[in-house]
């Protein structure tokens, strides 16, 4: 176990060092038992880093250890960054949340909704109202993912080349146009379904800013926040820091196998800039992003968003204030459904009791397909980032276990 020198003694910010050690020991067992390759963890409180640790190998076959600067594919933890980018433009008056997406992306005009049939012969009806930007940011647009493998629309997406990747030769604009040409799963705004909608938001950022998504991120977010290792690709000079990607060989996840095909993709300059899942980052970089959100849009004197905008982002936007269990389709997502709502690009805890794990109402965050996770808890002034590389993320209950262990280490009263 390697622990990094932190900004503050955890006891000064209401965290018990002995109980924090439980967190490390628990996840070290996953590595020792061959169920995870390695991991990085950082916990902050009141804007100060109180605990940081690493364990295991970034490359099991090569025997190279995880280090503080190990690079991880964060997959869908890209989504909150894309949402922040969009909200930065929103604050500049570039759009309104109620604007039809077709106003800026004409392919989204005249959408149709799937109501029956087969993938080869779908039956559709006209959308009652247009897909709006608010729908994209809340996953209520009616888009989907091909990897769900549940219904006809998922099959339609796979037939079009969208499952764990995109058709060869298509850039972000081309993918967005392709999705717009497919039917919607439901009338916009009537259900929640985890989907490619934040990728479409990434394209909106490009159109509204006049910059490519990678350029906007670098200039407006990563540069100001000093996130020096976060990007859409890993340069050759940094390839040795990249963690290898693994997948379980059995349903119980007792053994791992290296996923070289998907793992090496991040070493190539991408044609498709995936605002929904394309970034690589480090523990410390992403923790700076989380701290910015905890501090309501500002970090080290640099402000990306206004205080009210962050609060609005982290509010539950599902109609009637319901949770995902009541409004979402029972498909895979990077969060639990019970007691959890959804904001603009992030999940929001409404009731930790309903979710059956420790936490706070108002906590928000998201996870990634390779079992990564982060959250921000304004009530406890807490930030947590956990990075590893095991795909898919529902192999083990890592996130719920991380919650119960981290919150058990809090020993002061909520301020």
TrEMBL record:
- Check the record and name the SUPFAM superfamilies matching this protein: beta-lactamase/transpeptidase-like
Task: State the Gene3D superfamilies in the record.
Answer: DD-peptidase/beta-lactamase superfamily (3.40.710.10)
InterPro entries noted in UniProt: Beta-lactam-related (IPR001466), Beta-lactam/transpept-like (IPR012338), Diverse_Enzym_Activities (IPR050789)
Question: Which Pfam families does the entry link to?
Answer: Beta-lactamase
Ranges for domain Beta-lactamase-related: 23-395
Task: Spell out the protein name for this chain.
Answer: CubicO group peptidase, beta-lactamase class C family
């Amino acid at each position: 176990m390697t622990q990094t020198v932190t900004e503050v003694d955890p006891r000064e910010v209401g965290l018990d060092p002995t109980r924090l050690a439980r967190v490390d020991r628990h996840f070290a067992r996953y590595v020792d038992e061959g169920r995870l390759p390695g991991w990085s963890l950082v916990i902050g409180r009141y804007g100060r880093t109180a605990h940081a640790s690493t364990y295991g190998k970034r490359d099991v076959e090569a025997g190279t250890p995880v280090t503080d600067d190990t690079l991880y594919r964060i997959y869908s933890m890209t989504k909150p960054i894309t949402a922040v980018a969009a909200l930065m433009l929103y604050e500049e008056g570039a759009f309104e949340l109620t604007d039809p997406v077709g106003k800026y992306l004409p392919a989204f005009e005249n959408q149709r909704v799937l109501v029956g049939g087969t993938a080869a012969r779908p039956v559709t009806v006209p959308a009652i109202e247009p897909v709006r930007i608010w729908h994209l940011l809340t996953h209520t647009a009616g888009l989907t993912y091909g990897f769900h493998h549940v219904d006809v629309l998922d099959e339609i997406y796979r037939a079009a080349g969208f499952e764990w990747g995109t058709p060869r030769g298509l850039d972000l604009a081309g993918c967005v146009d392709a999705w717009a040409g497919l039917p919607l799963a439901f009338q916009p705004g009537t259900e929640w379904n985890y989907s490619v909608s934040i990728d479409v938001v990434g394209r909106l950022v490009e159109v509204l800013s006049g910059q490519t998504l990678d350029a906007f991120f670098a200039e407006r977010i990563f540069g100001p926040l000093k996130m020096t290792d976060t990007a859409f690709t890993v340069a050759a000079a940094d390839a040795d820091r990249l963690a290898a990607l693994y997948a379980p060989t059995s349903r119980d996840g007792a053994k791992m196998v290296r996923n070289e095909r998907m793992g090496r993709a991040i070493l190539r300059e991408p044609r498709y800039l995936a605002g929904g899942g394309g970034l690589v980052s480090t523990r410390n970089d992403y923790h700076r992003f989380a701290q910015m959100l905890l501090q309501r849009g500002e970090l080290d004197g640099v402000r990306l968003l206004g205080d009210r905008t962050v609060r609005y982002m982290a509010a539950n936007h599902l109609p009637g204030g319901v949770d995902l269990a009541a409004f979402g389709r029972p498909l895979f997502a990077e969060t639990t459904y019970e007691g959890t709502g959804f904001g603009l690009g992030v999940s929001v805890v409404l009731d930790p009791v309903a979710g059956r794990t420790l936490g706070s109402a108002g906590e928000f965050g998201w996870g990634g397909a390779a079992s990564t996770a982060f959250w921000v808890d304004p009530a406890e002034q807490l930030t947590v980032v956990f990075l590893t590389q095991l795909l898919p993320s529902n192999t083990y209950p890592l996130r719920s276990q991380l919650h119960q262990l981290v919150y058990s280490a809090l020993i002061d009263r909520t301020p």
